[in-house]
Amino acid sequence: MGDGAKLSVGFLGLGIMGEAMARNLLKSGLFASVTVWNRTLSKCQALVGEGAKSAETPAAVVGSCDVTFAMLADPDAALAAVFGDNGVLAGITPGKGYVDMSTVDEATSTRIGEAVTAKGGKFVEGPVSGSKKPAIDGQLIIMGAGDKELYDLVQPAFDVMGKKSFYLGSTGAAARMKLVVNMVMGAMMGAFCEGMALADKAGLEQSALLEILGLGAMANPMFALKGPAIMARNYPPAFPLKHQQKDLRLALALGDSLGQPLPVAAAANEVYKAARGAGKGDEDFAAVYEATVNKK
Ligand SMILES: NC(=O)C1=CN([C@@H]2O[C@H](COP(=O)(O)OP(=O)(O)OC[C@H]3O[C@@H](n4cnc5c(N)ncnc54)[C@H](OP(=O)(O)O)[C@@H]3O)[C@@H](O)[C@H]2O)C=CC1
Ligand SMILES: O=CCCC(=O)O
Fold first, then answer.
1. Full residue range of the structural domain in which residue 271 is found
2. Ligand 2 pocket residues where CB is under 6 Å
3. Is 29 helix (H, G, I), strand (E, B) or coil?
4. Which ligand has the minimum distance to the alpha carbon of residue 75?
5. How does pLDDT run across 77-119, given as a tens digit for each residue?
6. Buried-most residue among 59, 229, 237, 289 (CB within 10 A)?
7. 31 and 120: one domain?
8. 226 noted as active-site residue
9. Among 171, 187, 220, which residue terminates a domain?
10. Cβ contacts of residue 44 below 8 Å, gap of 6+?
11. Domain boundary among 146, 171, 196
């Protein structure tokens, strides 16, 4: 690995993000091969049709690749892919790289990193900012931490998947940074939805609120992107609400462990929990609006 020959790369997890990211690796032509795996194996078919290989287990992917990337739902999924039967660990041999780009907490990432390195492998965590469209466009923002040699080795892959990557230090730093970023995002979206609900109740046009917000210091792409979906009350998933609530839960646990008060995020988390409880978990996180609307 790293001797100038093209790397063979693997990808575990072909959800909203993973499929687009793996497709960009494949389309780049930079890699000797791209081998994919997904728990629901049928989801590999589209990429296989475009030239990827597929394998039946994470171990088989890792066994046949120099470096394997993963983009999995949550800590349970990330741990299952590594420690489960025929998981990543069963395929790791000295020198192989594993790059987990899922949004998880530091404890999960550390446990995975220690297990991979105990078998002679190298580990990087690489959670991302940016949603479905930036994933398709190769415009993600990648937060990396862990083995610096592996981070440098996979820079071309990060350049294909993202517009900028940051090396933040030892394993755990990127997991923590990603949770802070998504805590801010979740709270912002909660406040925005309350504003949209209040505007409506107060007899104001939500489109006018959007325009006014967009012209001032609070202008941001998220309000501009999600505002129309909220007005239409239609939330096709780009970032599923269940993942945003997971990220708030993990950020609050980080705050707890450090004694950092997070009252705004805690309140936002309750609204996402209510939306999740109302069956909105698989819709886009903008569906948190539905939990802010007073139905009376
Ligand atoms: N969507 C977004 O905008 C963004 C998401 N993220 C993060 O990226 C990760 C993936 O997100 P996204 O693609 O949206 O999620 P999806 O829900 O679309 O995909 C989740 C993936 O995880 C797999 N999975 C779930 N549970 C398990 C398990 N127990 N064992 C093995 N595989 C499992 C799913 O497999 P199967 O198909 O079989 O269900 C699927 O491949 C999450 O951590 C999310 O927080 C980060 C930035 C943006
Ligand atoms: O974790 C998801 C982040 C979504 C985004 O950055 O738009």
1. 176-292
2. 103, 129-131, 182, 239
3. coil
4. 1
5. 999 999 999 999 999 999 999 999 999 999 999 999 999 999 9
6. 289
7. yes
8. no
9. 171
10. 14, 36, 37, 38, 52, 54
11. 171
